[in-house]
Amino acid sequence: MATALIILGAGMGTRMNSDMPKVLHEIAGAPMLVHAMKSGAALDPARTVIVAGHGADLVEKAARSYDPDVTVAIQSEQLGTAHAVKQAREALSDFDGDALVLYGDTPFISPETLAAMTAARLTHDIVVLGFKAADPGRYGRLIMKHDQLDRIVEFKDATDEERAVTLCNSGVIAADSDTLFDLIAAVGHDNAAGEYYLTDIIGIARDRGLSATVVSCDESETLGINSRVELSRAEALFQTQARAAALENGVTLTAPQTVFFAHDTVVGRDAVIEPHVVFGPGVTVESGATIRAFSHLEGCHVSRGAVVGPYARLRPGAELAESVKIGNFVEIKNARIAEGAKVNHLSYIGDATVGARSNIGAGTITCNYDGVFKHKTTIGADVFIGSNTMLVAPVTVGDAAMTGSGTVVTKDVPAGDLAVARAKQQNKPGFAVRLFEKLKARKAKGS
Ligand code: UD1
Ligand code: CA
């Protein structure tokens, strides 16, 4: 059956104490909204509707960066979760199938859990995702009657007896789309918060003779984020799971607690990640590569057998071929480094290509920016770039060429040539000794 996702993200998130809409706060380099979309993607949804309100433009932009086909429905006043879902009705008026409601502030629902909900839908009209809470706090309580879910009571409206129930509402609900919108139309706001509660649809459905059940999952999956403290806990939980998954997949992490992954980091088997490595979004490290201590990688690709760091920085567009070596205090941005090439010390290579087996000497810089435009540097294969070469782009150095140390390259260097561009050295015999004597004498006189 076709599924439509409805993801709620209109709330301001007052407790975040932020100018940014809550669902855009990031976990592992992606907005929590994108995490929610990624977990919903496990159902291969035919449609996705994001309900946005506070900062709707920004929320829409973030949602489209993950899935350009999403529909954004605007909830201009936040009157409650049922009212929020109602805003998706028009976008789904021609949709036939199941609707699944997810919250943009609940990022970790697993594919297995969503599959269990889909399976439960075969026998029940409404399926709610619940969890046993260690500390049920202010979560809504799931009230069972025999083997059916009878109703959901919000904390604010619950009696002491109901508050003692530990089976809690995650917010995730699945039902036939038309049924869901029909039920929502009957929801009122006569409650402690004066809001239209989505949770009221269960009581209404039961009164109409529909069936409802609960699928349970681990509390860690339903973690809802309402404050910076909860955001930091979610980050920690994500990192713990990502480290465990990497180890499970055959990656060596010498000090797992010090490695930070992004939501989409891919690391191959037998890769070695040394301590204090940070991955930003968009990184692939192939099998058998080594990332040495204190390196920072983002938007880059590291091939088999390459060695990066210690203390290296790979920025977006860094493409390292097999057996490349990138050493300490080297920054690579938007550059392809071909097989076996080495950039070992204190260099900046940006907007460039470096050919196979070329060696870039210490302190070399591609001067790619003229203050207004960026320009490209092309270095061929088997090139030797002398230490402290400034390559003033746009410029090309041909295959098997060389540059002398300290050269400022402003013209193309043909293949096989040596380019030297620096002042000629003069030696003045005995001059140093005489100068030292003069200076020491002046110091002794105290002037
Ligand atoms: C909700 C549930 C509660 C459940 C808890 C789980 C209701 C009435 N209560 O409470 O049973 O235990 O989540 O985390 O549903 N939102 C909108 N528009 C609105 C209101 C909310 O888009 O008008 C969005 C928020 O941006 C957020 C989500 O819905 O992503 C949940 O809203 P929130 O106010 O955090 O609900 P809770 O009080 O936590
Ligand atoms: Ca919440």
What does this structure look like?
- The chain has nine helices and 35 strands.
- The protein folds into two domains: 3-222, Spore Coat Polysaccharide Biosynthesis Protein SpsA, Chain A, CATH 3.90.550; 228-419, UDP N-Acetylglucosamine Acyltransferase, domain 1 (3 Solenoid), CATH 2.160.10.10.
- The chain is α/β, with parallel strands linked by helices.
- Helix content is 21%, strand content 29%.
- Strands 13, 15, 16, 18, 19, 21, 22, 24, 26, 29 and 32 form an eleven-stranded parallel sheet that branches. It has a ten-stranded parallel sheet with strand order 12-14-17-20-23-25-27-30-33-35, with helices on one face. A seven-stranded mixed sheet has the order 5-4-1-6-10-7-11.
- The model has no long low-confidence stretch (mean pLDDT 97).
- Bound molecules: uridine-diphosphate-N-acetylglucosamine and calcium ion (CA).
